[in-house]
Glutathione peroxidase
Amino acid sequence: MTIYDYSAKTLMGEEKSLHEYEGKVVLIVNTASECGFTPQFEGLQKLYDDYKDQGLEILGFPCNQFNNQDPGSNEEISDFCQRNYGVTFQMFSKIDVKGDQAHPLFQYLTKEAPGMLTKQIKWNFTKFLINTKGEVINRFAPQTKPENIKDDIEKALNA
């Protein structure tokens, strides 16, 4: 299994197969608009701007499971991301990332790259780095700022 076996709805409601990202390095992030880590959108957008031409894609998945920190509609989330952070990378519809209703993609990601104490995602802005074959190569904690994973992204792009 790889991420290419999954699909998800974009913020605009379009079903998108992750197979579209085959051959790219992908950073998958569960996001929230009202979290202490929300300013990471700025760093994620900078990574995207700096590396998209070399083959990086960033996929944002809003989630409201952690302290109700993303209560808005998909349209409100889209407006917020564009207005406040100029987000141009692909954002998807709000999903669950843990528990029985977790999106199958996140069930796969947490199985492939379990966390330190639990395999489940513990908070917003957990990041998964995917290689060009669609395999999880690293998991980063919410506290890990996007700029601190540049080396890992560059290694994956140059692999």
